[in-house]
Amino acid sequence: MTIFSKIIKGEIPSHKVYEDDKVFAFLDIGPLSTGHTLVIPKEAVSTLDQLSDESAAAIGRVLPRLCRAVMKATGARDFNVLQNNGASAHQVVMHVHFHIIPKFENEGLGIGWKSKSFDHGAGADLAKKIAAAIVG
Ligand code: 5GP
């Protein structure tokens, strides 16, 4: 069981901002900016690809609403939504979570975005391969 399951159960305290039967949201204890909020499914799975359609739909339904609330409460106009999967992708807590990170002039998410050149031939093949791999 991860620390987030304990937070959902109330075994570990958190600054809760939202809860329904499938979703829980609370302030991040190590914020990148004021208002940094975590939105998590109550379903305890590690990464987004493991999440049920029901939990995914429940999060998708409230995520924009929670973003609006964080922006309104903090006065931020810009923000990032970050969702890490796997240790090499910077995931530390192995329970699916979405970060809402307000962006201020000197606070927020810094991104190292090193884009590669794009090969249209390989891209066409890859797009077909991904499309064929979609299940459900
Ligand atoms: P990750 O790197 O896994 O995407 O992010 C995990 C986040 O969980 C971090 O931003 C970290 O600050 C936050 N976090 C870890 N433990 C706790 C905790 O006990 N309480 C709260 N509120 N946030 C936590």
User: Mind telling me the CATH class?
Assistant: Alpha Beta
How far is the first residue's CA from the last residue's CA? 28 Å
**What small ligands are held by the chains?**
guanosine-5'-monophosphate
The CATH architecture name reads 2-Layer Sandwich
CATH homology-level superfamily: HIT-like
How many domain regions?
1
Strand-helix topology:
Layout: H1 3-9, E1 16-19, E2 23-27, E3 37-41, H2 53-74, E4 78-82, E5 98-103, H3 120-133
Antiparallel strand pairs: 1-2, 2-3, 3-5, 4-5
The structure holds guanosine-5'-monophosphate.
Guanosine-5'-monophosphate binds next to strand 2.
Features:
5-stranded antiparallel beta sheet, 136 residues, HIT family, subunit A, globular, alpha+beta, binds guanosine-5'-monophosphate, 5 strands
Structural features, described:
- Strand 1 and strand 2 form a beta hairpin.
- The chain is globular and about 50 Å long.
- Helix content is 32%, strand content 18%.
- The protein has one domain: 2-Layer Sandwich (HIT family, subunit A), CATH 3.30.428.10.
- The chain has three helices and five strands.
- Strands 1-2-3-5-4 form a five-stranded antiparallel β-sheet, covered by helices on one side.
- It is α+β, with helices and mostly antiparallel strands and 136 residues long.
Describe this structure in a few short sentences.
Helix content is 32%, strand content 18%. The protein contains 3 helices and 5 strands; from the N terminus they run H-E-E-E-H-E-E-H. The protein has helices spanning 3-9, 53-74, 120-133, and strands spanning 16-19, 23-27, 37-41, 78-82, 98-103.
